[in-house]
Structures are given as C-alpha cells and as structure tokens.
Design goal:
about 675 residues; alpha+beta; globular; 28 strands; about 20% strand; 20 helices; ten-stranded mixed beta sheet
Length: about 675
C-alpha cells in the first residue's frame, strides 16, 4: 500500500505510472469515464478502470491523483476508492441506513468507500500500516476507512444507495475548501448515477452549527445548495416539526426583538442597528439579518475590507517582481478604467489586456496585474474574475459595491465606543472599514446570544421564548437525503443499446422474505443488458447473476420456472411502468443464514424504544435501557446530560413509580 502514497508529482511521468486528473472536472461524463444513464454498477466499473489498483487481503483499492491547481505552486491530492466486501465488515446491517430511514433496505454484498485523506489521517494510516506489515492477517485498508478526520469520506452500497460521512475544509487544515469537496462528491454521485445519498449534518464554522445558521437565513441547511432535503430527525423531530420550527424562527420581527433586547443586553441591539444601517434594503425579520450577513461575508475578499475611502488603490507586493510599486499602481488604474468603460459587464481577459495595451506597453506587467487583481477591492469597486464555463476562458467584471459602504461615519463611530466584545470597527486615516473576519465574529455573537443562549438574553418573554425551543428542533433534524432521479422518473421499460444490437431492460424481482412474515420483497430496479433477440431464459439467467452480485440475501436466488422460457424478450409484454418483474425464491441454506442473522440480538431488531419525545426507532443518539421493563429511551429525555455517564442501574419513570409503594412493604 505504501507505493500509493506520493507527496508530490514527478516533473516527467514515466510510462506505467498513474495518470493525473483535474479535480475541477473529475467525475463528469468523460472525465475520465464515459458513463451512461442506466447502471450504477457499470459506471463504477468504468471509473475504476482508470485507477491504480492494489489489493490487501479481502479488500482492494484504487487510487486517483487529482490536480487542484498548477499556479503558483502545484497542488495534488489523492483519492482512494476502497472496496469492502461483506466478509470484511464488522456488521452486516448498515447503521447509517437505519438512522436515515432506510432500515428496510436489503443488505448489499459490497461497499465502495471514496476517501481523500487529510495530512493527519494519512500519517496515522502510514503509522498503522507499518505495524500491520508485521501482522499479515490484519487488513490495512480497513484502518484507512475507519480513521476519522478525512478531507472526504463517503461510500456507496453496491445497489447505488450511499452515505456522505465527512468533509473537512480549510478550518480543519485541508488544502481544499468545503465547497470544492462537496462539488467533487456531487459530481461523483451524479456521474456514477447513484440512487439516494444520505448524510448526518454535523457541519459547523466558528462554533456555529451550519444547519441552524443557514436554516434561519435561507430556509435550508448548508447542504441544501446541492439538493439535500430533510430525511429524518432525532428525538422525535418530524418533517412537519422541522418546517414549523424554521418558519417560526425565520419570521421573528427584528423590531420586536430589538425592543426587548434593549433592556436585557446592550451589545445585541447595537449590532442589529449596525447591519440595518449597512443594508440598502430594510431588514425586517431574523432571516433577513442573517441572510444579509452571510451575503456580506461572501462578497468581502479574504484579508480585505470595505471602506468609505474614495480612489483607494490596493497595494501589491512588488518584492518578488521586477516592476516598481509606482508602475504597478499605474497599470491597476489603467485596467480599472478599461473595465469601467464596458459598463460593468463581463469581458474576457484578452479584451481587458488589449484595451490596456493602448496605455501600457509592457505585456508582462499587465499579465502580472490581471493575475493579482482577481476578486480584489479597489476603491468603490470589486474586480470580479471567473472562468466562463462555456468558453473556458477567464473573464473580468467590475462590480460597484458603494451601496455597501456606511452611509454615516458618525453612526459607526458611535458603535465603536459601545463595543465591549473586541468587535470594534477598525479605522485607518479616519476611514471606517468592515473586515470579513469582523462580520463572522458579529454573526457568531448573534448566533450565540439569540439562537442558542436565549434564556440568558430574552428571558420568559412570550413568543420570543420559543426561539430556543425552535432552534433545538432545527438542530435535532440531522439527517438529510438527496435523491438522484434518473430511473424513478423514466417511464421506459426497455431501451435499445449499441445501435439496436442490445436491449437494456429495467427489471426487479419479487420473493417471499421468511424473516419478515413472508412479506413480498422487491429491491429497486436494475438494468439488465441482453442481446436484442435473447430468450426469456437468458434474461432470467442475467437477472439472477446481477441480483446475486448486488445483494447478500440473494446469493442463491433462482427465478421460478413458471413462464415460457423460449419467448423472445422483444416479444414479451412488460408489466406497465414497473418494467419486468420476475418471481423467485432463495435457497434453503441462505434462508437459514439470513434468519439466523435476524434472530441474533446483536442487530437490535428486538429493541423496544418508547421515548417521551415520541421516538420509536433508533436514531443514533445515546440511549439507556430500563433494567425492569427493558424499554429504551434517550438519555437526554430522561435528564442524563451528555457529559454524564449512563447510570449502571436505571429505572424509567413508570417502573420507578410502581416501585415506590413496594418500599413500604414489610
């Protein structure tokens, strides 16, 4: 495995070495695999053909080297795809499926983990691998997928359902932003044609839970940008409760909030006034306030600020270039004036360069300035730079941000004297400015003192006292799902492939589950590819192979021989929009093995959960079992704090009340 770990890229790649792929396009169709719209299994196989394969015992892995950027310094990351067969799994049943609401899903034969290790997890893995080399019976790859703190870790079951376990951006020491990691994951899910992806939203920034912050601001979690929606909640929170909680917090009027906070907390009303002054639109509700702050934070470049100084020119470090600061400032002025003349519309880098060359003959200086000006504030303007997704060329645009400037120096100067949290507005040469970091600090302060510490700030003041309760409900909605609707939305029962030589049939099977009261089980459809003139017998054999390959419970599944097997597939009538449904049975030995698993107490099938919050199923939160009635409840719901140990002997309230009369017996 150690041969997979490469800290840098050789200047010249030797023949036989692994290829390098661009992170920005990896996972799209043709980058690198030509995927189709039919089968997750086929698409995954096509992708893995481009990876560098190595095996370790029962598990195998493929590695891909991804180029993040080339300038100013080359940066590469490694993506591992680890195949985990069910024989190497500690538990047959997937706990993530249980928590997100897919507890009735059939058990799959394999998982495919997609992992980008962080520097820390890579170092830990190499250390573990060194010890494992002396013990060949141990699986080194299993340690890689078990480590916590990867830049990216998600996995797919072999039927196309999957889970995103973790992403980590700059704040965790990663070389990638959280947006870059999520874009990569979403491209992989889209390109491979995943069915559904679930996640446990634990994203946070500067101590703020993003599912609450973005929920209040935008009405959806941070992952909502990529299409993730409510899946299931913890502590009995349903979708209806979640939506009601969002609505109640988002619509709290700032005027009412400001009125009550004035007598309880001096700093919070000052902040509300500050951002109402900065906004050109009226901020009416709590949602408006947090939305404006997020928008303002996103528009401020890193390590820069908005100020009310006119004609300010940014300072570019000229210590490592051959031009003086004076020549650089002159070139900046020329570029800004060239962008002004096109009236704030997007133009290509070449057009800006050509217009500036009428005044600056040194093309090297122009190239240096254009590179340095990207997303920088100059006076009242923000120089935008973006890659045109169609033309694949860099484009520039000048955005007027004067409407974000303070309308009155006196207002902000007054606010400076009243800050008591280290959030003073910085001044330079008498000019007020708002830094990106300051907006984040203000946002964290309002988050803590309005959304979280509501009792200390608001007290029992009617409807405002409900903010904390609603915030708690929003935080308890942790599991979100994205459905990739590529098979469900199609009404096709079959499709011609390879110029009409082959036929792809959307097929599922029906069989009696002896461990589920003989209920008829039907897994999701799969695309069965056969020759156009194939007989029904050939279709059945291919369906048996595909479903045996995917599901552990169907390893010896056999289609019932009850229909005319010589019928050609292009002549048979498919079952409406369900496509082809094949009846079948599972062998006796497999039935015994499956029933033994479901009868095993380790799978917690027989757990009786009756919590006062309304929960009836396991949701991943800590629980405690009554030693008399053996009913499970959340520790939080019975008054056991998260930092407290679970009592060795625990009695629920009902059993405790029944025992009180017994204490008086002789």
């Amino acid at each position: 495995m150690s041969s997979l770990i490469r800290t840098d890229l050789p200047k010249k790649r030797k023949r036989g070495e692994s290829r390098v792929f661009r992170l920005k396009t990896f996972g799209e169709r043709g980058h690198p695999a030509e995927t189709n719209e039919l089968s997750f299994r086929d698409n995954l196989g096509k992708l893995l053909e481009f990876g560098h394969f190595e095996s370790s015992g029962l598990m195998g892995s493929w590695s891909f080297q991804l180029e993040v950027h080339r300038q100013p310094n080359p940066l590469y990351v490694l993506l591992f795809v680890v195949e985990e067969p069910i024989e190497a799994s500690l538990n047959l049943r997937c706990k993530h499926c249980q928590y997100v609401g897919w507890g009735n899903q059939m058990i799959c034969n394999k998982k495919y983990h997609f992992v980008i290790p962080s520097k820390e997890t890579m170092a830990a893995f190499l250390k573990l691998e060194g010890g494992i080399c002396a013990s060949p019976e141990k699986e080194s790859l299993s340690h890689l997928v078990e480590l916590q703190g990867h830049v990216l870790h998600g996995f797919f079951h072999s039927n196309g359902f999957g889970h995103l376990l973790s992403i980590n951006g700059f704040e965790s020491g990663s070389d990638l932003t959280g947006h870059q990691v999520m874009e990569l994951w979403d491209r992989l899910c889209t390109g491979l044609k995943a069915r559904k992806i679930g996640l446990n939203d634990a994203s946070h920034k500067k101590g703020m839970e993003l599912r609450l912050l973005h929920g209040v601001a935008k009405g959806e979690p941070w992952f909502g940008r990529w299409g993730y929606r409510f899946g299931s909640g913890t502590y009995g929170v349903t979708q209806k409760i979640y939506e009601k909680a969002l609505e109640s917090v988002r619509n709290v009027p700032l005027c009412l909030l400001n009125h009550h906070l004035t007598s309880l907390n001096r700093d919070t009303p000052i902040l509300l006034t500050r951002y109402q002054t900065l906004s050109t639109e009226p901020l009416i509700t709590l949602s408006d306030l947090f939305m404006f702050m997020l928008h303002l934070h996103s528009r401020l470049p890193r390590d820069s600020y908005i100020n009310n100084s006119r004609n300010q020119i940014i300072s570019i470090d000229s210590t490592n270039c051959r031009w003086s600061q004076k020549r650089i400032q002159m070139a900046i002025k020329v570029v800004i004036e060239s962008l002004k003349r096109v009236e704030c519309r997007w133009i290509s880098r070449q057009e800006v360069r050509d217009a500036a060359r009428n005044y600056i003959g040194d093309t090297g200086l122009l190239d240096f300035v254009l590179k340095s000006l990207g997303n920088q504030v100059v006076g009242n303007y923000l120089v935008r730079r973006s890659l045109n997704p169609v033309k694949k060329v860099l484009e520039y645009c000048l955005e007027d941000i004067s409407n974000l400037l303070p309308s009155s120096n006196h207002e902000l100067t007054t606010l400076q004297n009243q800050y008591q949290m280290g959030k003073t507005t910085t001044t330079t040469n008498g000019h007020n400015k708002i830094t990106r970091g300051q907006v984040m600090k203000d946002m964290a302060y309002l988050y803590r003192h309005i959304l979280m510490d509501y009792k200390g700030v608001l007290g029992p003041i009617g409807i405002l006292n409900q903010i904390g309760m609603a915030s708690r409900a929003i935080l308890d909605a942790k599991y979100f799902i994205k459905e990739y609707q590529y098979i469900r939305d199609t009404s096709m029962k079959a499709i011609q492939l390879d110029g009409g030589c082959k036929l792809g049939i959307f097929c599922t099977i029906a069989w009696k589950s002896h461990h589920h009261n003989n209920d008829i089980k039907m897994p999701p459809q799969e695309c069965i590819v056969v020759n156009k003139n194939a007989t029904m017998s050939e279709v059945c054999r291919e369906a048996e192979r595909v479903f045996r390959e995917i599901y552990w419970e169907l390893r010896d599944f056999v289609v019932d021989n009850q229909r005319e097997m010589t019928t050609r597939v292009d002549e048979m009538a498919l079952n409406g929009n369900k496509g082809l449904v094949l009846d079948g049975n599972v062998g006796m030995m497999m039935n015994i093995e499956v029933m033994k698993y479901y009868d095993d107490g380790d799978n917690k099938k027989d757990m009786r959960i009756e919590c006062e919050c309304g929960a009836k199923d396991e949701d991943g939160e800590r629980m405690v079992c009554c030693d008399i009635c053996e009913v499970w409840q959340h520790t939080r719901c019975v008054g056991v704090q998260h930092n407290e140990e679970v009592p060795r002997i625990f009695l629920c309230q009902s059993c405790d009340q029944h025992l009180i009369p017994l204490s008086f017996l002789p």
